[in-house]
Amino acid sequence: MLRTALLTLGLTLASAHLAQAQEQVLNLYSARHYSTDEALYDNFTKATGIRIKRVDSDDAGILARLKAEGAASVADVILLVDAARLYKGEVEGLFRPIRSKALEEAIPPGYRAAPTADGTTWFGFSTRARVVVYDKAKVKREEVQTYEQLADPRNKGRICIRSGSHPYNLSLFGAITEHLGEKRTEQWLKGVVANLARDPKGGDTDQIKAVGAGECQIAVSNTYYIARLMRSSNPEDKALMERVAIVFPNQGSWGTHLNIAGGAVARNSKNAAAAQRFLEYLASPQAQDYFANGNNEWPTVKGVKLTNPALLAMSNGAFKAETIPLAAVGAHQVKVQQMLDRVGFK
Ligand code: FE
């Protein structure tokens, strides 16, 4: 009896030891700052047994860290929330090109890096639009139909926006540079600065709340922050969303600016196969559903049906998004930062 028990114990210890030795860990460097993503990672671990170890930073911090760590980096998967930064990581050689039939079939070419002879470096798994929110009682819809109108003198003293140097704005302004040219974009930025109700501070949600507080009348925000407020059960959020309306700018011209959140395998990953498996998981219907319903983003995978009520409501089901080469947006970033300095956009 005792002997059997000891034998069983021995076997249990041996298998626990084996499991530990075999436990695979993926090091994820992530700029995604959304609490709903926890379930996304847990499900991957449940399905594969691969544990996720996360290092959180912003896009720029992650790219700088990868560069500094070089070949010694433990990073396996990189998740960024801005197309220009994904492009930067690609250009700086921080990502490992991969070949994945699953990803190439699932994700349209506009939402991933251009393929090279070695493969594709990054894939976009979700998108967010950068839109205008305005006070219905004080602003007429026709005053905020386009990004260009944010610089219109009739909107003087009305606008709240986060820092011009934040990646979401750098990419928006980079896109506008592509549409309008450098000279007109700098004039436009000057006009936007002249229209600010206050110096830029806080995140996108803070700008919408400032409209609610009467500090400004027009705010610029990514759509998922708006959807989060729309789905909130907090009475203050409900009152705020009653007060404001949303415009997808430039529906009559080049379309609303869209940004991409995506991922890549780190150049020096020691677990490249598992890292690729993780990216393929992000394109699965289950993961795409997390992006859509957990964090209120538009899924990029073909054929995934959007059911998020807030996203459907704010866009009336669909909207016209801009179509520009991401490389162009990325390439404009340095110029945009110089323009911001010249026009005093903090
Ligand atoms: Fe964000």
Instruction: Report the principal-axis shape.
Output: globular
What is the CATH C level class of the largest domain, in words?
Alpha Beta
CATH fold-level name of the largest domain: D-Maltodextrin-Binding Protein, domain 2
- The total of helices stands at 15
Order of helices and strands: HEHEHEHEHEEHHHEHHEEHHEHHH
CA-CA gap between termini: 76 Å
Give me the secondary-structure category: alpha/beta
Strand fraction equals 15-25%
How many structurally independent domains? 2
The level of helicity is 40-55%
The CATH architecture of the largest domain comes to: 3-Layer(aba) Sandwich
Structural overview:
By secondary structure, this protein is α/β, with parallel strands linked by helices. The protein has 2 domains: 24-127 and 259-307, Periplasmic binding protein-like II (D-Maltodextrin-Binding Protein, domain 2), CATH 3.40.190.10; 128-257 and 321-343, Periplasmic binding protein-like II (D-Maltodextrin-Binding Protein, domain 2), CATH 3.40.190.10. Helices cover 45% and strands 16% of the residues. The protein is built from 15 helices and 10 strands. The chain has helices at residues 2-22, 37-48, 59-69, 83-91, 101-106, 167-180, 182-195, 204-212, 223-230, 235-243, 272-282, 285-294, 309-314, 326-331, 333-343; strands at residues 25-30, 51-56, 77-80, 95-96, 122-135, 159-160, 218-222, 244-247, 258-266, 298-299. Strands 1, 2, 3, 4, 5, 6, 7, 8, 9 and 10 form a 10-stranded mixed β-sheet that branches. Helix 6 packs across helix 7, helix 7 (182-195) crosses helix 15 and helix 8 (204-212) packs across helix 10. It is globular. The chain starts with a helix and ends with a helix. The mean pLDDT is 93. The structure holds fe (iii) ion.
